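Bench log, entry 3. Co-assembly request; chain sequences pasted below exactly as received.
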Amino acid sequence: MPWRERDLLAAFARKTPGPAVAVGPGDDCAVVSVPPSLVLTTDLMAEGTDFLPSHPLRSVGWKSVMISASDIAAMGASPLFFLVAAQIPPGMEEDRVLELTAGMEAAAEAVGASLVGGDLSAGPSLLLVSAGAGAPPPGGPVLRSTARAGDLVFVTGPLGGSILGRHLTFRARVEEGRFLASFASAMMDISDGLSGDLVHIADASSLDFTVSAAAVPVHPDAVALSERTGRSPLHHALHDGEDFELLFTLPPDRLDDFLEASRDRGFAFRRIGRMTPKGSGRFLETEEGPRPWRILSHEHRG
Amino acid sequence: MPWRERDLLAAFARKTPGPAVAVGPGDDCAVVSVPPSLVLTTDLMAEGTDFLPSHPLRSVGWKSVMISASDIAAMGASPLFFLVAAQIPPGMEEDRVLELTAGMEAAAEAVGASLVGGDLSAGPSLLLVSAGAGAPPPGGPVLRSTARAGDLVFVTGPLGGSILGRHLTFRARVEEGRFLASFASAMMDISDGLSGDLVHIADASSLDFTVSAAAVPVHPDAVALSERTGRSPLHHALHDGEDFELLFTLPPDRLDDFLEASRDRGFAFRRIGRMTPKGSGRFLETEEGPRPWRILSHEHRG
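Structure output for the full assembly:
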């Protein structure tokens, strides 16, 4: 049976919301209890660009919420609430739409948040937009613009080749982000690719940087993908998008405390470089010496 | 020059946000100060369904924010923050995209709120999704489900024919909603059309109702449209969508206070009927006697 807006909103409304949700889906707005400060984000995902018709709908729904959860994690914040607006082809079977919404709900639950509302609209192709709200960490959110010269550059995990599947099934680094909020001087999530995203932190903080090629953690998927593309695994680690690991900077005087606390929590973050004063240049250090930093990463472009 | 995501996000970020906005567009999330409770909503608008390529982009941007502002008004709440995610055709001129964002910003400002973030993505046709957060009224948000038998049914203004232009240029009934929060037992905004939306309140409140055909305020646009369609102006007032007036119920013992306070504020709300116990039936009273209530209003449907 094809989907109907009202039936699906009713299905949304049947879910048990958390204690902070006074009114869930089904009215003009959801009504929620919130802390004095919130982080807010929104992300758009379209068929053909961010996922394919062949991808499992549960994973597509999961990704739509996790992308926003990742933005929240990148502030060191904790996800609280999500809304999802979806454009759905008119003939799609209701069961398939319910796979999609099940994925959204599973993702919200996996990061300790509630899916509190949505909007469904018929249209030519599947498109999902999530909006998320989160609680900042006690010391305040971690921005992109607050790195300093001399800070060390880290990533939370191996990079590259996410297109082989991880871009749909990843789990936002919420625990890591909350932990890092006590240490990091600047942070963001890697969505466009390391090469472009590190430039975002550098530009926002008015700094340059050097990254050691040998230190960049390469995901096995980047190795697998390189066998198909003929590019190096490092190329994929530097330039592929949608890793959704966190990229952060650490004041060097916090290094010992940070390493000890990370070990205690079982985190294996990877140090890849250092922020330098503006004017120092942006370099990838290789065995053959420093090379100018190149951005080959993804950007939606007109 | 065609638009580029980064340039436009920078343009967003140049705007001066309100005092409650600690971090505006440009980081992974916006950071805002909020009251202890919030209402949250999201709405999707697509070219071809909700607007046409011939419509002015400033109005399209205005509408994208006002639709969510109207949901917030329908709870008796005050809009605080909006996020807008947009899918934009890759070749669109940057000046035209800036018309769109100018309309969003004007709408947010018109309802006393801030546009704090967004997401821009290239895609085949223009599509906008707004998410809004608002502060509930002191006595708590007004729901759809809390009307009682005997309550009087009102609308805030004349209905029908919004397709002639008002559906793009309307101003959400935020002032009215805040005022009504002290009186209304149930409320929603008229987006699908009166005939369907009154059924939403009745179903949510487990009630029936009677509406007087002669009392339904008919907009001059409904008259103008009826000359083209051959349908009656009343038909358009009952069944057209996107009026974005508020539909609300009032306990009869509040009527005198309500009328006096409305007069003092210069509001001219229109009483159109009465909620009745479930089982009484749903009727439109006409000169020829009661007729069964028909729903011919809009619903996105699979």
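Chain A has a mean pLDDT of 93. Chain A has two domains: 5-135, 152-292.
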